[in-house]
Structures are given as C-alpha cells and as structure tokens.
From TrEMBL:
Listed name of the protein: ADP ribosyltransferase domain-containing protein
ADP ribosyltransferase domain residues: 12-162
InterPro entries reported in the protein's UniProt record: ADP-ribosyltransferase
GO (cellular component) term, any one: extracellular region
Pfam families recorded: ADPrib_exo_Tox
Amino acid sequence: MSRLQPSSMQQQYSLSYESIDALNYYQQNGYQAIRRAILNGENTEEINPIIEHIDSAFEQGIKFTGETYRGESLIKAYSDGLIKVGDIVSPSTFLSTSVSARSTEGFYGGQRSMFELSNGEASIIMPDMRTDELEVLVNRNTFFEVTAIDANPEMGMNNVIYREIAASDIGNRPIKDMHTGENISALEACEF
C-alpha cells in the first residue's frame, strides 16, 4: 500500500461531493478539456463549475508536502535558455505530478521534473488514488524557483528541479510561465 492511500481515503471525507467528482473527472480524461479552457479562456458553462470545484478542493483538501515528479514533452524554454536557474516560474494550469518517479515514465517525452513541495498549500492528494500513478495535483497559481536545470538539446531531454516558494519570497524578480518562459505578472499567475 502506498503512503498516500490512507490520506487519499481521508480526502474523500474532507471534500464536497462536487469537488471529488471534479477531481475524478480531471483525473480520468477531463484534464485536457480543463487545461484548454484555462489556457484559452474558454470557460464554458460545463467546464467552469468543474474548475471552481477543483479550486475549492485546494482550499478544503488534505495537502501534500514532499517531493513529486512529472514527465512531459520537452519544454524548449529550458534548453533555449528562456528559463534559467534562479528564475521564478508558475504553471498556467493544474499540474499532475506523482510521488513515484517511476510512474512518470509513461508520460515522459523529453523532460523530467522534480517538485519540492514544502509549504503545504500548493498541492493536494487525489481522493481516488490510482496505484499506477500515485497522483498529487499542483495548483495553477503556485510559485516555484528553478533550482537546477540539466538541459541536453542534442539528446532532446531536460531534467528540471523546482522548489515551491511563497509569494512573499519573490521580491522584485519577474515571474515566468513555466512552459513558455514568457514573463507574467503575479496577478496574471493567480488569475489563470
């Protein structure tokens, strides 16, 4: 049994039925529609309530602290130098991560990321724990400092380490979208 499973079961009692349903929808196949809606500003009558219930889950749910991992396609902003060590980044949408580096291999397409989640506010344990994914969801308005980048453009792969930081620790440093490297304001990061 995973160390997350007891917390996952408790999560079912911490969240509203609507939040649980929204997270289950996200986890099964809805993440694509939700991601598109957030990125393109196309919050339809169907998707907007789901996003609101996921937001509510971050307020009410059991938080996660520790290390999580994510495999995804190669993000050129790192290998092209648009994002560097020391930069502050924020995801523009929810991020699926896992407590198991091994379980992210199926999603790997050139970039491996590790997230050091220490504040206990940015991530929640999914109420329906799939043992093949061991998923922890990271909120879209979270700030991270990039602490390490191992970019190898010739091999088509990046390894990136992020450390969660509080908004009060950002100071005057610019905030970049973690996938594009474009500068965004703190207000924009929180509006996504």
